[in-house]
Design a protein that fits this description.
The protein has six helices and no strands. The chain is mostly helical and 184 residues long. It is found in: Mitochondrion inner membrane.
Length: 184
């Protein structure tokens, strides 16, 4: 193994079954702390309502009408409520399932995604679409959560350069040694 920089904290040891990935913090035993479902839901509801307001403003700007700026609320205001409802249902369900199971894992996020997807399907006024959106969003958000809540994987810059180089070399196939047939 290469020498480590004494100024950086040591990296946790990786298991031999997963040589290219850092261990998840969820793998270590920890004490579960209950989540305040209404507190989390109210924060996420306000944030998602803000996103809904932005989307409603864009919809209002792109449509032709004589309502002016009030069209954000009067014509496309349902978008604000829809985003707020999806944010509330996701965060409340995620926290409630975590409290019920007394664990923090990807299944909680999958349940929240399913609830938000169901709201999206109900808005389309189709029960099959509600169940399909529940399954699709639950799967996507659960998978994202199981993968460490990041699209890019581990933070490569937090790993010392020599270890990154070792991982890079181990990832690619090693070239076969060239054998000179004339000498053999």
């Amino acid at each position: 193994m290469t020498s480590r920089n004494p100024l950086l904290p040591p990296l946790p040891s990786t298991s031999s079954s997963r040589p290219f990935f850092l261990p998840s913090p969820l793998e270590h035993a920890h004490t579960f702390h209950a989540h305040s479902a209404l507190n989390a839901a109210s924060k996420v509801t306000l944030q998602s309502a803000g996103v809904g307001l932005l989307v409603s403003a864009v919809q209002n700007a792109l449509e032709k009408h004589d309502k002016g700026a009030m069209g954000i609320v009067t014509r496309t205001g349902g978008t604000i409520a829809f985003f707020a409802a999806m944010g509330f249902s996701f965060s409340y369900t995620q926290a409630a399932v975590a409290n019920l199971r007394a664990t923090d894992d990807a299944l909680n996020s999958a349940a929240g995604g399913c609830a938000a997807g169901f709201i999206a399907g109900v808005r389309a006024r189709s029960l099959p679409m509600a169940f399909g959106a529940c399954a699709a969003m639950g799967t996507m958000i659960g998978t994202f959560s199981a993968a460490g809540n990041a699209l890019t994987g581990t933070d490569r810059l937090s790993i010392p350069r020599p270890e990154r180089e070792e991982r890079r070399k181990a990832f690619f196939k090693q070239p076969k040694p060239v054998v000179d047939e004339a000498a053999a």
